[in-house]
Amino acid sequence: MTSLDSPYAPYTPEPKQAPPPDLRGLPEAKPLFGYPKYREQHTGPAPFLPMSRAEMEALGWDSCDIILVTGDAYVDHPSFGMAIIGRLLEAQGFRVGIIAQPDWQSAEPYKVLGKPNHFFGVTSGNMDSMVNRYTSDRRLRHNDSYTPGGAGGARPDRAVLVYAQRCREAYPSSPIVIGGIEASLRRIAHYDYWSDKVRRSVLMDAKADLLLYGNAERALVEVAHRIADSGIKQDFSDIRGIAFVRNAVPDGWVEALTDDLNDGDEGRRRSGEMRDEKRTVIRIPGFDQVSTDKEAYARASRVLHKESNPGNALPLVQRHGDKEVWLTAPPIPLSTPEMDAIYELPFARAAHPAYAGAKIPAWEMIRHSVTIMRGCFGGCTFCSITEHEGRIIQSRSEASVLREIETIRDKDDAFTGVISDIGGPTANMYRIGCKDKAIEAVCRRPSCVFPDICKNLNTSHEALISLYRKARAIPGVKKVNVASGVRYDLAVESPEYVKELVEHHVGGYLKIAPEHTEDGPLGKMMKPGIGTYEKFKELFDAAAKKAGKKYFLIPYFIAAHPGTTDEDMMNLAIWLKKNGYRADQVQTYLPGPMALATAMYHTELNPLRPIRRGASEPVDAVKGLRQRRLHKAFLRYHDPENWPVLREALKSMGRADLIGPGKQHLVPNWQPAGTGDGKRTGAAGRPDRAGPKFLTKGFPHKFASPKNGKH
Q: pTM of the full predicted structure?
């Protein structure tokens, strides 16, 4: 059965009821597929978007309307952002070419498809190029999952800047539009961990014409049609989700000042001149100020995150020298029919033939996975999902998801009957959202689930359970796995979901992210207390026992997060030891651009609280390499290589009582030969093999291998 013959009914939205005039929801948005096609594609969709002149000629093209430059290999699959953008523009009637992972040493590779008729679209790819290339200790990674063969070094540092500069060098008159996660998270002046300084908006350094941030489909389609119609020299300020440079705030606009002496909520509304919010812009501290004044930086970060709800956010403006970087309000979320249409575009669901079958690790991992939603209302301060995709969940219809599974079954010869993941940024936020759209439109909470689950949040998992059951009932499907991170504070609200998950969608073990055990760091992360995790574990274990299966939970934890003390890490290590967890790999906090936790790391202030001159809440920031390594060592307390540094730290902390040979001790008072400092203390003559024996409780340590970055 093909997707064209699918028995599943198309999604039918619930009938709209007009709200009272004083209880408006989100503003209306122009339908994503409501534009006249730029040109009719008489030959139908391209098998692959062309990467060479020969492919263009085979399609009968003499030029491309839009050329997309990406730091990833070109895989025509909806898990790759550039494939979605390319196919969406193709559906709008544009001729789209792809330049994937070009050499950046000269402008010649950027001329391979000729000059675009309208503009270059530039992205670093699915990952930030700096996060992709460097570890949290600033060490060079030697692999890249988005490159054929997995080899590292296929993209430059700060790829958006470099690609944009080379495009400008190749064709100086061609407009340049930047987007993707690297540009999105650098849209204002931001702290850069790798250079340890505040950098300007990437828009300024890339010298691009426009920056699209967040879920960019809606802005992209509008921008593409406008540039095709009237060129780049026009006013784009009415398009949501974009940034551009101006010389000054235009006449007729009112500035709401949010200087670093007052808190954002009061400052945002305190001006009596703010009668017409359609003509009001919020000024945040400028680059010169935030680069030298940490309170001003924390202030700007707080205001930006407060102005993130598309229902009530205002435009922002930030001074950079003699120019103004202007950010329009966040984009209106995609509707379910729009999400369906995007994910059902005619993707080849394969890597471009130019790679001659070379394995692309990211593609191999996700080729049989299905995205069912976008966004996250968790608001974890260290994570970029909410900042990039927004906190309003955008879900596909059940019918669309089931049709995609059928497509995988029918068209992918490598499909063995196993869907590797059915999820998204989180596994279990599908169709969950605010009960009242009017309340949602005026809400300014950074999280719907912290410090507690909002009373207005619908936490029902019924739609997701229904989807799971129908997905695994499709003929030819043997197993539907859930590999996306489960939000356990939501899951405990639905024991039926936990039962369904354990009985049918877990294979051996389930990775989950409590991140810490102590209230101090958890409060700075905006994560629930460890008691919620333990409640989920009870439900999980009970469901596994009832099903007669031996399954294990694999918890992720972060070392050295802002707000974490040495004592916090010691207590976490004690908890791990008590519960028999041995982490094979651990995650040390990496300050990504624009995150709230990064503002804490850089400023040592808490932007979750009001920022007032001299009265802001301080935050412990773990910056020194020695302390960061100590925190990481606590997570791997069972590794003999870490025992010397842990013994030293425990003694200095007055906790030498945790050093010894018993089960109540954290580390032994002796050292196996050839490890750590190579010295034995205490139990001289004890066999080396006895070292970690007391840590064998629990599951095999090979299962404790947290993957990075999907939180």
A: 0.90
